[in-house]
């Protein structure tokens, strides 16, 4: 799925990645991220491919796991389901702040929303 960022991207990146300079923020806005989701029961495989890295992540709904953001920031948390929407709640290991992420299929798009430290952003992935 191809994606587009909302206009709040830069604010959200500044909030989540405190200390990330403007050049890196601008690069992140053009990471060309593609996501593939595969589900078997409560188990998911998420394949991420971007300009920065390729990652295969396996997890089970409701089971806590660790995850590293592209800049190396470590998170710990889990994904769950709320109706037809996936909701992930993750805590940064370095500062204890919570990142909440939701994923929902809306028409032919995957809408991924983020909330961190009072800042919200949305990323829309179009079926590729």
UniProtKB/TrEMBL annotation:
- Domain Lipocalin/cytosolic fatty-acid binding stretches: 19-127
Which SUPFAM superfamilies has this protein been placed in?
Lipocalins
Q: Which Pfam families match?
A: Lipocalin
Top-rank taxon, per record: Eukaryota
A Gene Ontology molecular function term for this protein is: lipid binding
Membrane spanning residue stretches: none
Which N-terminal residues, if any, form the signal peptide? none
What does the similarity note say? Belongs to the calycin superfamily. Fatty-acid binding protein (FABP) family.
Q: What is this protein called?
A: Fatty acid binding protein 2, intestinal
Native organism is: Oncorhynchus tshawytscha (Chinook salmon)
